[in-house]
Every structure is written in structure tokens, then in C-alpha cells.
Design brief:
This protein is α/β, with parallel strands linked by helices. The chain folds into 2 domains: 128 residues, Leucine Dehydrogenase, chain A, domain 1 (Rossmann fold); 192 residues, Rossmann fold (3-Layer(aba) Sandwich), CATH 3.40.50. It contains 15 helices and 12 strands. The strands form 2 sheets. Strands 1, 2, 3, 4, 5 and 6 form a 6-stranded mixed beta sheet that branches. The protein has a 6-stranded parallel beta sheet with strand order 9-8-7-10-11-12, with helices on both faces. Helix 3 crosses helix 4, helix 5 packs across helix 12 and helix 5 crosses helix 14. The longest helix has 21 residues. The N terminus is likely disordered. GO terms for molecular function: nucleotide binding; valine dehydrogenase (NAD+) activity.
Length: 380
């Protein structure tokens, strides 16, 4: 291990970290990690430990700049606080990013160096898989830290968290169908899935089994071919633009964040799409998109609500993993999604705002319990 140093963030980033920006809440801790020997450049962002240790995955991605990586870590970690709160977990929100191409740059020394930085936080942050990292990577990270989930079954872990992530998104989509069309099924509906990698291909399986007509796209030919092999009846289109304009009942963004822009929402509205429900994190490109969706009559299932099955799965490892117990918890995403839609309709607000309010309420109420001092507690 060589050093932890400070980069020069883009204007406005420090105001977000310290809570003086527009969101006004800030992050508890941001750690910049650099190990020259292995080439590790990583950022660990702890947004909130109001409900417990911050749990969130590690994204390995070839960011264009360090500033882009920092912005992503801040956005993703904040999203994890809300996701964990709404999922009913006693865990806060955090996220890490490793800068680099996972296909070219990833190596054992780098992952183990990263594990030592995670260990240095002494349990404030618990890591797991995300884009560019896999179960086998977490097994390597775990050689240097005990604060890691998403491990292989051979090491007592849950294995691939994409399984329950997709299952949870499907539950959210069923709830969306119930709210929009009166029945909790996608049978006879045309569903477009953008991104059929880790989560998307499992989601396609649920949709096909439920009787939906499925249309997919992905920048990876291998990912598309895997779906074609498993489900020959699935239609494939060239790109997301073609998908958006293909008369969908439901649009499921399952790749990277920022999928719902002003232009995207306009296309969805013009095409008559009724529901947006997908696995990608941070789907709303900027504040106000959620209102635009509502104004156009498009029902939006908040991303961090419906994609929480994965974090539910890896969080269950902390107790000693039991798949049936984790799946039962993920099944409740259906009920929570319906509750959010009901609250949104009653208050005259978009579902994303209703979800934020419910998550913030839980974080506020549970963190306030710290004012009740325990006899053996020591002030920290």
C-alpha cells in the first residue's frame, strides 16, 4: 500500500461532498485510494450510516476522467442509502468505483490492494459486486478484508446477486402492471429491455415465462446472442433509439444510469409507452425528469426501489446466507412498489418523490434512536 491522496475535483463536487450543494445533505466520508504498485485508483464514498454500516457494490469502469468517477461514486452511494432504507435493511449507503478497464487492467494485486483500503474503514463500508466486478473478484477482495459480500457459494456467499436483482425488478414491473392495467402480469404486453447483461438476461427469462412479448438491445453482441440462444422468440433491435420508438407498453432500462433524459421521455411519450421499470441505477438524468414522466402519463417505478433485490441478497450473507429467506424479502418489492404508487397518487406527486420521502422518513426516525443512550455505550 502506498498512499491515499486528494485529486482536484471539478467545480461543485466538493459542495456535494460537504452538503453545501443543491441536495444539501452531503456525504459522511469519501476516500481516494491509490496503490502505485498494482495501479489501483479507487474511490469509496460513504453517503450515510444512519441505518447501519454502508453497503454498496464496487464498480470497475474506464471513466474518462477522475472527476467523472468521483461524480459516479457520489451519485451511486446516495442512491444506495435510499435503496437500503426502502428495502427495510439496517444498512446505510455507500459505493466504490475502481478506475480502469476491467477486461484489461484488473489483476489480483489490484483487487487485494482495494480490499486493504476497504478493511481500513473498519466496517463502516461493506462492499459487493457491481458493473465490471464479479463473484470471483469479491473472493479475491475478501483475502484482505472481512467486510465484503457477494461471495461465491464455495466461500459461504450468495453467488450472483443479479438473480434476485432481476426477480425484484420483475416484482416491481408486476406491481406497475397492476397499477396501470389492473392485473399483476405482463402477459400480452410488449416490454423493451435495454441492456441484457448481468441482470437484463435474467429479467428477460421472467418476462417470457409470464407471457410478455420481449424486445431487447445491447451494445454487446455476446449478451444479445446469449439471450437469443435461451429465448429464440425474443425480438432484437439495433440500438436503444430503435427500442424506444418501437411501440412499447413497458420500457426497462437495465444498463448504465442517466437513461431517462428529456429527449428519451419525449420519445416514450410519443410512442405511447405506459410504464418505465428497469434495473439500472440513477435512471433520471436530472431533477425534473420524474415530473415530466408523470405529466406525460408514464408510470415510473423508482429504480432504487425495484432493483433492490440484489442488495437484499448480498445483505443476507451478513446473517449467513439463506436463498429462500432473501427471496421472500425480495418478493415484498411488489407490495412496496404498490404502496409508493398509492402514496404518490394520494399526495399528487411523482412516485420518485414519494419513494424519496418514505426512505428519508425511515432514515430520519431510525437515526434519531441514537439519542437513546445505552448503559454500556461509549460516545464516539
Amino acid at each position: 500500500m502506498t498512499d491515499v491522496h486528494t485529486t482536484h475535483p471539478a467545480p461543485g463536487v466538493l459542495s456535494r461532498i460537504f452538503g453545501t450543494g443543491q441536495d444539501g445533505e452531503g456525504h459522511e466520508q469519501v476516500v481516494l485510494c491509490h496503490d502505485r504498485t498494482s495501479g489501483l485508483k479507487a474511490i469509496i464514498a460513504v453517503h450515510s450510516t444512519a441505518l447501519g454500516p454502508a453497503l454498496g457494490g464496487t464498480r470497475f469502469f474506464p471513466y474518462g476522467t477522475e472527476e467523472e468517477a468521483l461524480q459516479d461514486a457520489l451519485n451511486l452511494s446516495r442512491g444506495m442509502s435510499y435503496k437500503n432504507a426502502l428495502a427495510g435493511l439496517d444498512l446505510g449507503g455507500g459505493k466504490a468505483v475502481i478506475i480502469g478497464d476491467p477486461d484489461k487492467d484488473k489483476n489480483e494485486a489490484m483487487l487485494r490492494a482495494y480490499g486493504r483500503f476497504v478493511e481500513s474503514l473498519r466496517g463502516r463500508y461493506i462492499t459487493a459486486c457491481d458493473v465490471g466486478t464479479y463473484v470471483q473478484d469479491m473472493d479475491v477482495v475478501a483475502r484482505e478484508t472481512s467486510h465484503v459480500t457477494g461471495r461465491s457459494p464455495e466461500h459461504g456467499g450468495a453467488g450472483d446477486s443479479s438473480i434476485l436483482t432481476a426477480f425484484g425488478v420483475f416484482q416491481g414491473m408486476r406491481a406497475s402492471a397492476r397499477a396501470r392495467w389492473g392485473q399483476p402480469t405482463l402477459r400480452g404486453r410488449r416490454v423493451g429491455v435495454s441492456g441484457v447483461g448481468k441482470v437484463g438476461h435474467y429479467l428477460v427469462g421472467h418476462l417470457v415465462a409470464d407471457g410478455a412479448t420481449v424486445v431487447v438491445t445491447d451494445v454487446s453482441e455476446a449478451a444479445v446472442n446469449r439471450v437469443r440462444a435461451a429465448h429464440p422468440e425474443v425480438e432484437v433491435v439495433a440500438d436503444t433509439a430503435a427500442l424506444l420508438s418501437s411501440a412499447l407498453d413497458v420500457y426497462a432500462p437495465c444498463a448504465l444510469g442517466g437513461a431517462l433524459t428529456d429527449d428519451t421521455v419525449a420519445v416514450l411519450g410519443a410512442a405511447g409507452t405506459a410504464v418505465v421499470c428497469g434495473a439500472a441505477n440513477n435512471q433520471l438524468a436530472h431533477p425534473g425528469v420524474e415530473k415530466d414522466l408523470a405529466d406525460r402519463g408514464i408510470l415510473y417505478a423508482p429504480d432504487y426501489l425495484v432493483n433492490s433485490g440484489g442488495v437484499i441478497q448480498v445483505a443476507d450473507e451478513i446473517e449467513g446466507f439463506n436463498f429462500d429467506r432473501a427471496k421472500n424479502k425480495a418478493t415484498k418489492i411488489f407490495d412496496t412498489t404498490l404502496e409508493i404508487f398509492t402514496r404518490a397518487a394520494a399526495d399528487g406527486i411523482p412516485p420518485a418523490v414519494a419513494a424519496d420521502r418514505l426512505a428519508e422518513k425511515r432514515m430520519r426516525e431510525i437515526s434519531a434512536l441514537r439519542s437513546v443512550l445505552l448503559p454500556a455505550a461509549r460516545r464516539s
